Amino acid sequence: MQNERFLRACRREEVDCTPVWLMRQAGRYMEEYMEIRSKHPFLTMCKTPELAAEVTLQPVHRLGVDAAILFADILLPLEGMGIDLEFAQNEGPVIHNPVKSKADVNRLRLIEAEEDVGYVMEAVKLVRRELDGKVPLIGFSGAPFTLASYMVEGGGSKSYLECKKMMWEAPEAWHALMEKLAEVVVRYLKAQVRAGAQAVQVFDSWVGTLSPADYAEFVLPHSRYVMEGLKDEGVPVIHFANNASTLLELVRQAGGDVIGVDWRINLDEAWARVGYDVAVQGNLDPIALFAPPEVIEEKVRDILARAANRPGHIFNLGHGIHKDTPVNHVIALVDAVHKHSRRVG
Q1: Catalytic residue among 5, 8, 24, 128, which?
Q2: How many CB atoms lie within 10 A of CB 17?
Q3: For a FRET experiment, which of 44, 62, 87, 294 has its CA 20 to 30 Å from that of 301?
Q4: Would residue 5 show up in a list of annotated catalytic residues for this protein?
Q5: The whole model's pTM is what?
C-alpha cells in the first residue's frame, strides 16, 4: 500500500506524520458531491454502487486525506430488518413503523448482509479497486444504541424521550432490541471486511444523551458484543461515541482498537483516561473549519502537541464536517496536520 499511515496509527506503530481523515468527508460541502446529488435522491446514491464509490473517492482526490471512508448511511441495514425508512426532503430520516413494544421487536429479522445490503458490499469492492492501494478504505456502521434511537423515536430526536421510556418501562423489550441490533451490526461489518474494508468505525452518534449509569446498564453490554464479535476480523475497529466525555472509561470498557474523541474534552486528558494501550482519534471542533486558516493551523498544533508524537493518534474532527464548510479550509487543515506532525529522522 502506498500510504499506510492510518493503519499504522490504528496499530500504535510509528508513522512519518500523523494521519488525518474527516468524518463525513464524502458529502455536501463539496461541489463535486452536490453535482451528483442534484441528479439523484440520497437513497439512490447510497444504493447505486457506482455513485457511492465515486462520492467516496472525491475527497481522497481533492483533499489529500490518509484514508477513504465509504459513502453510505448508518440506517441502511434497518430496511432488511423490516423497517420502513424514508429520507424526507430537508427533514432527515423518517421511520414509518417505529419500534414501540416487545411485539415490534419480535417482528424484526436479522439481516443477511450480502443479500439485504449487497449494494454496500459492491461499493466497497469498487472503491478498493479504484483506490488501487493509494490509501486504506474504512467501512462503518451505526452502533446499537444510535440505531435503536432512530427506530424507537421514529427519526431524529433532541430529548430521546421514547428511548429512555422504553429502557426504564420495558427493559426486556429494550435489551431484546439491542441484542438484535448488535448482531446485525456484527454481520454488517463482517460483510464489509469480507468485501475489502481495511478498517471499520462504529458510530455511536447520540449516546451522549445518556447518564453513565444508564450507559453501563443499557448500552455497554451490547456495544461490547459488537467489539468482541469483530476481534478476529484482522482489521482495526474504531469506536466513536459522540458527546461522551462523561462516558469515556465505559466506552473503553466496551472495546475498540481506536477510541474516537470529540472536541468537548482535551485530547491529552481523554487519552490518559482511556489508557495509552489504545489509539485515539480526534478531536477538532468541526466549526473550527470556518475560522481563518491561520487559526485552524494554531488549533491543529495544539491538538498535535497534546498527542505528543505518541504512537496511535489519528487526526480527525470531533464529529462530522458541516455542510457549509469551505473546501479550501479543509485542505488547509489536512496540510497543517501533515506539516506540523512530520517526524524527523
Answers
A1: 24
A2: 17
A3: 62
A4: no
A5: 0.97
Whether the CB-CB separation of 243 and 216 falls below 8 Å is answered with: no
73 catalytic? Reply is yes
Task: Please enumerate in sequence order all residues whose Cβ is within 8 A of that of 211, keeping only pairs 6 or more positions apart, or say none.
Answer: 246
- Which residue from 50, 61, 65, 73 is spatially nearest to 19, judged by alpha carbons? 65
The Cβ of residue 272 has, within 10 Å, a number of other Cβ atoms equal to 11
Of the candidates 180, 276, 282, 173, the one whose C-alpha atom is nearest the C-alpha of residue 226 is 180
Q: Which residues contact 140 (CB under 8 A, 6 or more apart)?
A: 69, 70, 72, 74, 189, 192, 200, 201, 202, 203
pLDDT bracket for residue 345 (50, 70, 90):
low
Preceding amide of 266 cis, omega within 30: no
Query: Going from the N-terminus, what domains does the chain have, and what CATH number goes with each?
Result: 5-340 (3.20.20.210)
Structure confidence by residue, pLDDT tens digits, 283-332: 999 999 999 999 999 999 999 999 999 999 999 999 999 999 999 999 99
CB 313 within 8 A of CB 15: no
pLDDT tens, position by position, 5-20: 999 999 999 999 999 9
Active-site residue identified among 37, 194, 301, 306: 37
> Is 37 one of the annotated active-site residues of the chain?
yes
Considering only CA atoms, give the Rg of the chain. 19
Whether the CB-CB separation of 18 and 313 falls below 8 Å is answered with yes
Cα 64 to Cα 209, 225, 290, 330, 342, distances in angstroms: 34, 35, 19, 10, 15
The active-site residue, picked from 12, 33, 66, 150, is 150
Q: Residues 73, 116, 257, 262: which is the catalytic one?
A: 73
